[in-house]
TrEMBL record:
Family: Belongs to the UPF0065 (bug) family.
This protein's name: Tripartite tricarboxylate transporter substrate binding protein
Keywords for the protein's UniProt record, in alphabetical order: Signal
Presence of keyword Glycoprotein: no
Phylogenetic classification of the source organism: Bacteria, Pseudomonadati, Pseudomonadota, Betaproteobacteria, Burkholderiales
Cited InterPro entries: BUG, Bug_dom1
Record's signal peptide: 1-44
Keyword ATP-binding found: no
Amino acid sequence: MRHIIQRAPIQDDARPSRVRCGSLGKALRLVALCFGLAASLAHAQSFPTKPVTVVVPFPAGSTTDVIIRLAGPRMQQILGQPLIVDNRVGAAGSIGTALVARAPADGYTLLFTSQAHTANSSLYPNLPWDPVKSFAPVLLVGSIPNVFAVRSSEPFKTLEEFIAFAKSKPGQLNYASSGVGTSPHLTTELLKQASAIELTHVPYKSSPEALNALIAGDVAMAPLGIVIAKSQIEAGKVRALAVSSSTRSRVLPNVPPVAESGIPNYDVRPLQAIFAPAGTPRGIVDQLNAAFTKALTSPEIESKLVDLGVELDLRSPQETGKFIQADVDRWSVVIKRAGIRLD
């Protein structure tokens, strides 16, 4: 600290006293900043001294749940403490998310969630948490693209052909999703807006139900999770028209992205991300980011993530924060234009 104060500008007695006070204020702010950084480092150096709980706001067996459980054993090796998964289900992920927002900002309670985090604030009017202000971003893990699929017996072979057919029959075609406000629903609403087509939404309670409706011919199209789509493609029951991401998937490398199908700016990669409560010391956030990055890029874990359809896109806390804000803004516009609202 002496070093910092000695290098502050030397004040001339002839100068007005307000200048001397301003310089003193700058020096004091520097001292405070140093103390803050030192405190953050001290927190990180002693972290963790007990198990870390990761709240998953979805059921056991969901993709989000499977991802974090895969990382658990490796995280324990890295941190020296167990990783406990706590499934807090309800209100489209809001119950578990609210729990973490209220938790102590000490790094011992984390949230691992999906696109619901960035969409729910526009879908539900009175959430007790804010997707940006209530949390400290830890890590953007990656995404799981959706696949726009039709029955194999349908005449259209590409997304362009489906869009042209839909334009010839405005409002007469329908599509299935796993529920109002879910990733498949919003992904298709954005497709409708980007391609200027009219489709009728038919929400089901789950992805398997939506898939069954597609195979039975009850709907013309369905956006499916990439793994379930692959199994049905291989079974010859459905045809994949395009993946929602802007690049091809390693799971379905022969399926073009929407961006190659006449809508160049379309890119939907439903996120998987980890958060801590707002105010968590930066040193702890950085330590958690490094630990999760190391765990998820372990060869044995990364190969299993590929099998789940996860496209790894690991980012720093700062980059994750920017991604989250952009995703919140994007879905806010889509949801408003589509007139979607949940109570």
